[in-house]
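Local shape tokens

___
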Amino acid sequence: MNKYLISADIEGITGVINKDFSKEGGKYYQLACRYMVSDVNAVVQGILNADPDAEILVRDAHGASAVNLDLERLHPKANLIQGWGAVQNMLTGLDQDFNGVFLVGYHAGGQNIEAVLGHTMHSIIHSVKVNDQLVNETGFFSLYAGYHNVPVAFISGDNFAISEARKQLGDIVGVVVKQSYGRDCASSLSLMQARALLEKGAAEAVVKLQKKQFKIYKVSTPVTLEIKFYDSGVRVSVLQHLSEILGFDATYKFNCEERTVTFDSGSVLTMLQRCNMLLFLIYGIGS
């Protein structure tokens, strides 16, 4: 039996166009959650169309709680992981036994001011680089897949999410469910149109996985990670707090003028673990 992991974020979901949709408690958040189930279920069905005996695990991967998907409405052939636990990993549950990863509702990076709801892990982060190459959440969390030797096969989101993903991961299957006109403006397909395209795209990705047509995303080691913050009061303050908290550890190099924190690691997994710790500190300071 083949196994597939679907990681679902919300900013790239059909019909989600601003923080009133994406923020827990926002005016349109419940609508966004319904749209999210619709997109995810279409991908589940597409996988099953191509591989009827597939085992499918859905990882709810949005927000402070990672609890957005309604289990009562989720496709009956899918299992669901919710909550962050100790590690804020958007691919929790993945191991080397999986055949492929599907990214649903993903978005462009924080440096992309044209993309609807573009960000990289936190709104105060301008950009993230791995080995001096720009990565967004798609690229960063795909390193977990690479660590387990599992290819990322599929992504859905706005047009910028798809183009950025292909630049980082190669020619994966991408389904554009909306066209961005700015940070809080997009033209979305109807849910019915989106479901049809998502189902078709997911089935295509499974067929390509069976033919081993996707590369596994890896980077060379030792690996260098750089996080750059936006240039405004609270962002600079977070960086200053980080430099004071981690001043005892020479691993981290802080440049307050460039608003960056950088560190080197001998392995990808250690880099991911160190970044996870930084994110917990950033979220804590930012709140």
Q: What stands out?
A: The chain has two domains: 3-210, 223-286. The mean pLDDT is 95. The first helix runs from residue 19 to 22. Residues 3-210 form a domain with the Rossmann fold fold (CATH 3.40.50.10780).
